[in-house]
């Protein structure tokens, strides 16, 4: 029985090992991407089969299987599958070692799996390290490009530091409670007189995870890393890595630190406010596509943090919804960026000039995804933001909800700058724009899902209401 | 609260004193007769060549990394061997999976030329 519960992890680890073997013997690296997609689908089936299973903890509580974990695994697999689909041509053109890329991105996802499917601090930390160490290498895979190396080294230095900070916070929790299991920690903290130490543990953990989700003021590594890393890796980091950080933040705050949660709500609300405002204002002045999307990702992390700060069941539901929509719209937007950078390597926003004439389909898809990122109906981004906004109002943080609305308005110029370039700018030199089937498929899936989440959100929201963070 | 640390304080003091006293007593009692052979570093009977603080070639690190993996494997193999008879077939399968994973990694490193001295 317990092997059925961790079948997704087994399959994903198996996929990584198969890819490792295929990298040695397969003649065409394209078969690795195909195998990756098949493995991702198989894992997805295993995850979906585990939905609705009664929450269970196996192996002395080191692995916990519940719907919260399964849902995040679905998000990771969506991202992994799309990355497998759209990366090939980009990696080929930039002369990246494809085998290593596919293997590492699979193991990074396995790390994210471990992070979400445990209430036990050591397993969570192990998953975090597996994910981030694979990510450090992924960020530096453009070996001829100095900026990619810079991205990797900055990411590594900050990541190593923050892993230490998180570990220190976790060790304080262990010292205070004598347990590494979040439920036991919550019980011990509820009666503990050491409020100062509990606060210290909270500071370390929130600051450390704040680095991982690139919340202001812990964001300084993010723009350089997201800009310098290979574009498929940026897409993976901005979505999967961030979602995993949020999942752990939710688990630790709402389960382990639940007795002390009240004192953190205002801190988190201020961080959320500063993060979204900083991200949006800085994104306006960017001229490079990936850097603009990097600051946009910081702003989006601010929106999602609103859900953590409000910390009600409604806000958690809204967060979960928004993170899935966010994965689709961001990865989709990156698919268009990758398509364009396969032809024009400069990756400036100006490259979008005249895209509506050259490739109307891509321009329309990009427009829809950007509308979703702003939060305009009928898209998943709109509905997710609306749900976050409502949960903030109902949770008594009206000012934060107002800040979200104002920030959405601030974000309009830079997203529309891309749309303006695509539709209104004078025509750029004509150029054949093409993409392989995988990229088209990934973009199609992302756009369809973004629209579907916006038009028919009810079934998913109804399901998400049943998800419990707490055991 | 603080009294709980008394024993730690006593332990630290006694530890520090013990080192100081033994070194002092040894210095007073022992004969003092240094000569070159006695001062040379001992390395399994080999005659040392050159200084100890030389630059190591960076290429050693990849060998060291692969070595560490199999070092850790040995650590896992010892307790496994001790309880092997009690757990039986299950232990065998699990360990074969573990070793198989490591072997695949070794084959990968080998095939990719990580073990070649260029």
Please sum up the structure shown.
The complex is a heterodimer of chains A (471) and B (118). Chain A is mainly alpha-helical.
Describe the structure.
The complex is a heterodimer of chains A (471) and B (118). Chain A has a two-stranded antiparallel ribbon. Chain A has helices at 2-5, 7-25, 30-49, 67-86, 88-93, 98-116, 121-139, 146-177, 182-191, 195-212, 222-228, 231-256, 262-284, 289-310, 313-343, 355-358, 360-374, 380-394, 398-423, 437-455, 458-464; strands at 56-58, 63-65. Chain A is mainly alpha-helical and 471 residues long. In chain A, strand 1 (56-58) and strand 2 form a beta hairpin. Chain A starts with a helix and ends in a 7-residue tail after the last helix. With 118 residues, chain B is mainly α. The longest helix of chain B has 28 residues, at 60-87. Chain B has a domain at 60-111. The mean pLDDT of chain B is 85. Classes of the chains: A mainly alpha (471), B mainly alpha (118).
Describe how the helices and strands are arranged.
The complex is a heterodimer of chains A (about 475) and B (about 120).
Chain A: H1 2-5, H2 7-25, H3 30-49, E1 56-58, E2 63-65, H4 67-86, H5 88-93, H6 98-116, H7 121-139, H8 146-177, H9 182-191, H10 195-212, H11 222-228, H12 231-256, H13 262-284, H14 289-310, H15 313-343, H16 355-358, H17 360-374, H18 380-394, H19 398-423, H20 437-455, H21 458-464
Helix pairs in contact in A: 2-3, 2-6, 3-4, 4-6, 4-12, 4-15, 4-20, 6-7, 6-12, 7-8, 7-12, 8-9, 8-10, 8-11, 9-12, 10-12, 11-12, 11-14, 12-14, 12-15, 13-14, 13-19, 14-15, 14-18, 14-19, 15-17, 15-18, 15-20, 17-19, 17-20, 18-19, 18-20
Chain B: H1 6-29, H2 36-39, H3 60-87, H4 89-111
| Beta-strand content of chain B | under 5%
Q: Poorly predicted ranges of chain B (pLDDT <50, ≥5 residues)?
A: none
Quaternary structure classification = heterodimer
The rounded distance between the terminal residues' Cα atoms of chain A is 20 Å
Radius of gyration of chain A: 21 Å
Uncertain segments of chain A: none
- Count of beta strands of chain B: 0
Q: Main β-sheet of chain A, in a few words?
A: 2 strands, antiparallel
